[in-house]
Specification:
Elements (H helix, E strand, L loop, with lengths): L6 H8 L6 E4 L6 H8 L3 E6 L2 H10 L6 E5 L5 H7 L5 E7 L4 H6 L25 H7 L2 H12 L4 H14 L5 H11 L5 H15 L2 H15 E11 L2 H13 L3 E2 L19 E6 L1
Parallel strand pairs: 1-2, 1-4, 2-3, 4-5
Antiparallel strand pairs: 5-7, 6-7
Helix pairs in contact: 4-11, 7-8, 7-10, 8-9, 11-12
This protein binds S-adenosylmethionine.
């Protein structure tokens, strides 16, 4: 069992009471789920990625207190009601990707896997891939996509270079996109590469829209006094969470955002945890 990000802090934030009902909206590799079950919670474990859920079903087959569901947390309310979770004491959103998806996904989610195809779909039934976006959007559309989803400073120059390159050949792999970005951002390009990949992943998987719908649904599902715990990985995600808290006049248990990092995974450096009390 891998140890997920901010494990103790998020479990503490959920304030788990034995026998009560909770949702792990991003079950992933089951680290948080395992800890929730250890505390005696009844858990609905949800993930959009079918592979993750299949592995979890096998891993937790002895456990009677967990219900598994493949689905998008954008529909958390409908999914939960369908599974008999009508009012819950807490919901956990551990946003982003799991290590397994990054390392072994084979769909171009990590910019270090140069030979992988530019796919990035967590849900294989969706039609939009990163390759499709990169090869079909015009310069302005690409620029807007990068700027909106990652606030990368070189968005315009990178969009321009992509459109130039694809006149010569279709851009199909992680490596070919990385090369284009490196030609534009010659000095320390890693940040720009990470942000452009983030922007594409966010678009392909509608991450910001999903999060907005999920938070609205969560608000209807969590009982008074219950908790919504959110771990986010970049400022644009956190902005959505902050706006949700402000617009709904919600109370935060920890006003101070926790910054956290493990030195071997750079993407974890900016993880932030927010605990909301309903
Ligand atoms: C950081 S991982 C979660 C790790 C997990 N907490 C653990 O302990 O292993 C994020 C997970 O969220 C899932 N995910 C991302 N977007 C989702 C969505 N819209 N609906 C449901 N699951 C989603 C991903 O497939 C991934 O498995």
């Amino acid at each position: 069992m891998h140890r997920p990000v901010l494990l103790n802090e998020s479990i503490e934030g959920l304030n788990i009471q034995r026998g009560e009902y909770y949702i792990d909206a991003t079950a992933g590799e089951g680290g948080h789920l395992w800890a929730m079950l250890q505390k005696g919670a009844n858990v609905l474990a949800l993930d959009r990625d079918e592979n993750q859920i299949k592995k979890l079903i096998n891993m937790f087959k002895e456990d009677k207190n967990v219900t598994f569901e493949i689905g998008n947390f954008a529909s958390i309310e409908q999914i939960s009601l369908k599974c008999g979770f009508k009012s819950v004491s807490g919901i956990l959103f551990d946003l982003g990707l799991s290590n397994e998806q990054l390392q072994k996904g084979g769909i171009g989610l990590s910019y270090k896997k140069l030979d992988e195809p530019l796919d990035m779909r967590l849900d294989k039934t969706s039609e939009i891939t990163a390759k499709k976006l990169i090869n079909s959007l015009n310069e302005e559309q690409l620029y807007k996509l990068f700027a909106k989803n990652s606030e990368e400073l070189y968005s315009l120059q990178i969009a321009r270079a992509i459109v130039l390159e694809r006149k010569r050949r279709e851009i199909k792999t992680v490596g070919s996109l990385v090369k284009i970005i490196k030609n534009v951002v010659t000095d320390s390009p890693n940040g720009a590469i990470a942000r452009i990949f983030q922007a594409l992943r966010v678009e392909v998987n509608s991450e910001y829209q999903n999060l907005e719908s999920a938070l609205k649904g969560a608000l209807l599902l969590v009982r008074s006094g219950g908790r919504i715990v959110i771990i986010s990985f970049h400022s644009l995600e956190d902005r959505i969470v902050k706006r949700f808290i402000k617009n709904n006049h919600l109370k935060q248990l920890k006003k101070k955002v926790i910054k956290f990092g493990r030195d071997h995974f750079t993407f974890e450096r900016s993880a932030k945890l927010r605990v909301i009390i309903i």
